[in-house]
Specification:
single chain; 297 residues; alpha/beta; Rossmann fold; six-stranded parallel sheet; three-stranded parallel sheet; 10 helices; 11 strands
Length: 297
């Protein structure tokens, strides 16, 4: 195996959750209230149910209030919008997350657009997308890209300026917000996608390579600049020879590890950071809604 340092997202996320818990304790002491996170789940998708359960557990462990609202897949869009509006009006709720995907008869964008932008802890509302794009410090940042950024800052000791970054994938959830975050860190950023010419050559130019394309093991070791830092956002389930399945990222880990300077594994890399950053965003939202100074986390 190669010498690439493993970026341990699980340990990093545990540290972040500890800092969030400390911040919550401070807020309870000074305000008498704990931040509250409301999660809305529609339907019975097994993966979504597990994810929502984990969010609830980690919210409570951080000392926050957890509100869960579960609806059948048959709920009407109007009824779901009424639920969102009720949460917007509830002062005990500081963060609102509607678990995606929603059933086909419900317009995701209409529901996300109904969330109060200052409670939109997923960072998907067009107001927060715009705030991030113009560099406003009032943006609530999507959780997965925020987790990637925190790990990169830690890896480089905060010195990201001047680095060349390539992001493979242009989704609204990861690729586009990652572009804005790295640009604000004064990186030189390229977003690559399915129409990019000579993708391997472009990837080899990157000091920081973020793979978020949703294609198992697409990025090979010979695509990577020696010593580069590789952030693998992909989570793909593929078949094993024995008939079972295994989780893998968008990067071919064994060959990448031979070349990279540092790399996130799958599982145990970016994944654990997503819920930790959701908790962080909820504390940030609480502070802003009450006009308090934001706590370092």
């Amino acid at each position: 195996m190669g010498n690439a340092a493993i970026i341990d997202g699980k340990a990093f996320a545990a540290g972040l959750r500890g800092r969030v818990k400390s911040a919550v304790e401070t807020l309870v002491e000074t305000t008498g209230a704990a931040p509250g996170l409301a999660v809305v789940l529609v339907g019975d998708d097994p993966a979504s149910q597990v994810y929502v359960r984990n969010k609830g557990t980690q919210t409570l462990e951080a000392g926050m209030k957890s509100f869960e609202f579960k609806h059948p897949a048959t709920i009407s869009q109007d009824a779901l919008l009424d639920q969102v509006r009720a949460l917007n009006a509830d002062p005990a709720v500081n963060g609102i997350l509607v678990q995606l995907p929603l059933p086909d008869h419900i317009d995701d964008q209409a529901v996300i657009g109904a969330i109060d932008p200052d409670k939109d802890v997923d960072g998907f509302h067009v107001v927060n997308v715009g705030r991030l794009a113009v560099g406003s410090d009032q943006a609530l940042i999507p959780c997965t890209p925020l987790g990637c950024l925190l790990m990169l800052r830690d890896r480089f000791g905060g010195e990201l300026a001047g680095k060349s970054a390539v992001i493979v994938g242009r989704s609204n959830i990861v690729g586009k917000p990652m572009f804005h975050l790295l640009l604000q860190e004064n990186c030189t950023v390229t977003v690559a996608h399915s129409k990019t010419a000579d993708l391997p050559e472009l990837c080899r130019s990157a000091d920081i390579l973020v793979a978020a394309v949703g294609r198992p093991e697409m990025v090979q070791g010979d695509w990577i600049k020696p010593g580069a830092t590789v952030i693998d956002v992909g989570i793909n389930r593929i078949a094993r020879p024995d008939g079972g399945t295994r989780l893998t990222g968008d990067v071919h880990f064994p060959s990448a590890q031979e070349v990279a300077g540092a790399i996130t594994p799958v599982p145990g890399g970016v994944g654990p950071m997503t819920i930790a950053c959701l908790l962080r965003n909820t504390v940030t939202a609480f502070c802003r809604q009450r006009g308090l100074a934001e706590l370092a986390m």
